[in-house]
Amino acid sequence: MVKIQTVCGFGCGSSLFLKMKIEDILKENKLEAEVFCGDVGTCASAPCDVIFTSEELADRIMGRVNVPVVVIKSFVNKKDVTEKTLAFFESLNK
Questions:
Q1: Can you tell me the distance from the alpha carbon of 67 to that of 5, in angstroms, rounded to the nearest whole number?
Q2: Which fold does the domain 3-92 belong to in CATH?
Q3: Considering only CA atoms, which of 75, 47, 51 is closest in space to residue 63?
Q4: How far is CA 29 from CA 83, 84, 88, in A?
Q5: In sequence order, what are the residues at sequence separation of 6 or more whose Cβ sits closer than 8 angstroms to the Cβ of residue 2?
Q6: Where are the domains of the chain?
Q7: Cα 38 off chain centre by
Q8: Is the pTM of this model over 0.85?
Q9: What digits encode the pLDDT tens for the residues 17-70?
């Protein structure tokens, strides 16, 4: 199963909000994945297939991980989150 990590500064605020958004999108599109929250300090040590995070934190994460980092401009913009979530799943089929 695909593992998606949502990352924010402390792992319990905006990452939880993003986790719930992604879970809704997965359900709406009949996709399955394990979605869990992480914080910017420890995200590199948590096994996952992709990290979704904010523009502000992406640079701090990209150099430390070997998985794709998906940058979400606005966690409340469902269109942006949906497009990027579906694009990630499409990339798995290539």
A1: 10
A2: Rossmann fold (3.40.50)
A3: 51
A4: 12, 13, 13
A5: 32, 33, 34, 49, 50, 89, 92
A6: 3-92
A7: 10
A8: yes
A9: 999 999 999 999 999 999 999 999 999 999 999 999 999 999 999 999 999 999
